[in-house]
Amino acid sequence: MPKKIIRLCYRKVIDASSQKVWDKYVFDSTYKEFLMQAQFYNQEKKFSTFAEILHHVPGAEKLHFLVSTAVTGYLQQLRGIVPDILNNLGKHFLPFENYRFEIINSDIKNKASHQVAINFFSKPLQWHDTINGFLLVSPVNGEKTDDGQMTELVQLPPFLSIYSLKTANE
Amino acid sequence: MEQSRKKFLKHFLIGAVSAPVILEACKKKDVISDSSGSGSGSGSGSGSGTCTVSPTETAGPFPTITPSSLVRSDIRDDRTGVALTVKITIKNTNSSCAALAGAIVDIWHCDKDGYYSEYGGTSMQSVNYSGVHFLRGRQTTDANGLVTFTSIFPGWYSGRATHIHVHIYNASGTSLLVTQIAFPEGSSSAVATVNGSGGVAYGYTKGMTGYTYNASDNIFSDDSAGAELATVSGSLSGGYTLTHTINVAA
Hints:
- The structure holds two protein chains of two kinds.
- Chain A is an alpha+beta fold.
- Helix content of chain A is 22%, strand content 37%.
- Chain A is built from four helices and nine strands, in the order βααααββββββββ.
- Chain B has two domains: 2-50, no CATH class; 83-119 and 130-248, Aromatic compound dioxygenase (Protocatechuate 3,4-Dioxygenase, subunit A).
- Chains A and B meet through strand 1, helix 1, helix 3, helix 4 and strand 2 of A and helix 1 and strand 4 of B.
- Strand 2 (96-105) of chain A pairs antiparallel with strand 4 (127-128) of chain B.
């Protein structure tokens, strides 16, 4: 039967109401970086919000990329494991290498309206089955033992989705 | 498929002693509910579909406040080319052009092929977090107003002369000046040498055909006094050093 290889995407939204320490650091650092980088696209100081800058200034969409420099160090602290997402044993397990940072909203005059998202893209997983709403998956080329392939059970809560699907003959 | 399901059930029974712990963790107060609203459910009713386990792990890793990945002197990452050391001195016109210490200096430039680090056009395109910000850096000026970067000689692209972008901020991050640094031209200049036959071995394969010279460049053409023009010395094998002074009103 064809083997189904998926990659999961977790879109982690961080804003002024975020409580976790890592989230707060990312919130503060990305707002500080936004204030610095946005000045390049707002040299006449005509605009206040990210939406205004994006709408009026050509090239301002680069701010997503430029502000992402504030996130790199925090991503490294995760040691390659997607935060928040747990397997059904209550452990973080989802490995990632790729991400994409986005500014959702911000305002140079109002930090409270700063809202960003980090999209984490998992490494490829083999999707074996779906059991009572849980995906039964295992890392592609994962460890094989006498009991067969080691597996993980994971639910798809809001903001976690299947990003890509590839089928290959087993 | 059925086989793997049976295997799974077998595993689950082996681990059944831990099941009460998991069920205990499914009480409503323990459901993950971070600010992004992941605890709000997806309308699947009162079944177990919206109930997920809480983290049950040893604490850590512990986050620490980390500066922007721009803050570094060596900005090359995986980019190759002729070595270039960039030395920029910042002076303050509000203080008789004395050296300005503590100013934040961002620089960025293209690689040998004329490409900048940036996100691609597809909004869902993902990037690996190591090395994605190549040839971009940030340093703070020392007591002599100097910042130094280790980089590679920029290539060029259609419509522009070779250049380095610079954004200077005061210590608190307020923008003081956005400018660009131009490179000297002429038959024996670094630009001509790097993009000439000698540079091919270092990967500079465009040559000078179609190159936009400073006099035709829409940024540098009005700089008849040469205020944006750097001094560049060195060689292909030994690398080049660019020195330049920028005056700001701080």
